[in-house]
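Table 4 source record.
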Amino acid sequence: MAVEKPMTTVLLFLLCITTIVSAYEGCQDKFSITDTTCSQFAFSSGGGATSNLLCYDMDKDMNTFYDLSSLPEVTWVDPRMVRIASMVTNVFENGDKIFGYAACQDIGDMRGFTCGYVGFTTGTNDANQVIREFSEIKPSNALLSHLGRLGELSQLNSCDITQRASTVGLESFCETWKQEACNEDQLFANFQKQWTLNNYLLPSARFAAGAGVTSALGQLIFYGNYTFLISIKEVTKPSINLVRILELTGARGDNESEQSYLTRFLTTRRQLQCCYPDNVWPLSATRSMDLQSLVDNFDTNQNLLAPVALPHFGQVVTGEEPDGIDARRCS
């Protein structure tokens, strides 16, 4: 004889199922996490977010950057595009329109502390590199004491994700990052911005040019993908990098519009975000949703002259936002 379950138990069960299914808003319908979709990225033998991550043992103190020698030279980008692309990235990283120069926290993505202007991380070497280069300009900075531990992390096997994610020995890191970023001389805040321009934004514009993408909106999208994939490539199979994403997307057709190409590009990126085997990157697929909404209205948005709406983050970027001190964290 069947025992009737209390109604509250049934409701809780249904609530749990609904929560699991809808946990990743950007990973529904054709972006659902399935073996068919995820196998193209080779994150695991079976695909899907719950499978084990494949990793390739890269050289110690590995190079964070791509070989750009075959790409078109780009030495200048529209300052308005820079302002808007930087603020859009900040909204994605920090949730608001106050540049997060002093931001620092462990967001649980197995990359240690995520900090600063574009989310440099202690587990993937770019935070280490930023601090080392800044120390050449200001040798007495507050972060200098962390270079020893960051150097140790950079020497770890690149597949040792757990150890690279460790913040042991960096207990005061976020405090000192904030201290330096909030310093009244603003040297560290300005350095973060210039370092990002030189090492992330200009290289991303070269990749865009190589793909035949010339609009300001397209450059913004490539910039966002460049910073995202710089961090992801270091702990995954080497074929999972920006070059591989471009390969999976395919070249822009002779008669294909830039709008069509960017849609295919964002589709690949969003599938990658959904398939990445952790609980952080699938949540970030809403970023691609907002970028796609801009591409859907390409004629209006291609030159970034109109305000840029990011509905999943409740923000509208105008390009006129102040880029000075991190007022929220340095007050």
